[in-house]
Amino acid sequence: MPAFIKSLAAAAACALFGVLPAHAATDCSAQRGCAAKFCEIENDIAAAQAQNNTRREAGLRKALAEAKAHCTDSRLQSQREADVRDKQSKVSEREQELKEARAKGKQDKIDKAQRKLEEAQSEYNAALVELNR
């Protein structure tokens, strides 16, 4: 099979499965703070280029320029800490709602409150992960 067809088939497979070729994405896991943020935006730009999505690429380039102009590690850390506090507050709120639903005894209300609590806990956990990046 000619090399051109092989690379075309590989690109089609990547597009089909939503995966970037190995050379297009950089591992950002070792970076912290603003450097990690820049790395992730650059990876998104590479993905947009690979998909020929010029509008998304332009938006991401603007976001990268804004991030480079305004991002400081201390400000980013403060924002992440505030987000964790907000998410923790939401978890507490949802726990109270679940407690009230259980007191009323209606199973459908209990189930709904439980789902909302689980969603809030998931968002809180995601915020904790972000805090440590």
Describe the overall structure.
By secondary structure, the chain is mainly alpha-helical. Helix 2 packs antiparallel against helix 3 and helix 4 packs antiparallel against helix 5. The radius of gyration is 21 Å and the shape is elongated.
Counting copies of identical and different chains, the oligomeric state is single chain
Mean pLDDT figure: 86
Outline the biggest β-sheet.
none
Number of strands: 0
Helix and strand run: HHHHH
Distance between the termini: 44 Å
Strand content: under 5%
- How many helical stretches? 5
Radius of gyration: 21 Å
Query: Approximately how much helix is present in the residues?
Result: over 70%
**Backbone structural class:** mainly alpha
Low-confidence stretches: 1-23
Shape: elongated
